[in-house]
Structures are given as C-alpha cells and as structure tokens.
Amino acid sequence: MKKANAEKIAGAIFPISYLHIIRLLKDKKKIFVKFTRFKRLKKGSKIIFYASGEKLLVGEGTIANIEELDTETAWRRYEQLIFLTKEEYDNYVTKSPITRENRETSYITLFTLENLREFRTPTKTIKPITPTGCYMTKEEYIKMNR
Questions:
Q1: CATH number for the 3-130 domain, one of 3.30.457.10, 2.30.130.30, 3.30.420.10, 2.60.40.10?
Q2: What pLDDT, on a 0 to 100 scale, did the predictor assign at position 6?
C-alpha cells in the first residue's frame, strides 16, 4: 500500500475459522494473536473477521491495544483471554498454518479487542482476502459495515 494511502486505512480483514470467530465474539476471548507485519494498525483500527470456510465477513472488533511479546510470555500473561486453546496456540506458534513450515520468529502480535460484535447478516467481501489478511480502507469499511 502506498504511503499516500496510509491515512485511509481503517483496519484489516483477517481470515480465521468460524470456531475461532465464535470464541472471540461469544466466549469473551478478546485477544486475537497473529504473526503479522500489519504495522499500520493502531489503537482504534477495526479488525473484520472473515470466516474462511464460509467465505463470509461475520464480525468485527476495535483494537484497544497492540502488544508484541515473545510467544511464551504472551501465553503465560494472557492465556485466559487468547482465542486459541493451548494446543492450538502451541501449533500456531511453532508451524505456519499456511505453509506448515517451522516458524523462525518467537514474537507474536497480540490485539486486545473491544466492542466485539457479530454482524446481523454475514456478507461477502468486496475484495479478495489473502491467507495472511489484508488492509481495509475507510471507504471499504463503510461499504462492508453491517
């Protein structure tokens, strides 16, 4: 994304399983973890959840805090709030879910979310979603907002 468009970023769309979306939206698991290079996200940015199996946008949250920690400290400090089980987390931090290759980094980004909500009507996305996610502009957010 060009620098000129940086101020137009409203947030990001991330693909995750519907089970994990339910944990975030209904089970009060308010920390979304990601190995990410989405450095333009900040407090107040939106994260839209894309149910990858269903290919639908199903909910959102607002970033209240962003923290980068080593994977062991992240789990020890926030295990009750992270949306993954211990087994899922251990698998995620050791192997890429996309390539199945071993991870070389030990730092993970934690997004503490607030105002989590499920969309009344899940909707199709207006743009392709890559396995790692994608930025979303303010204009795209307005078009997708439910």
A1: 2.30.130.30
A2: 59
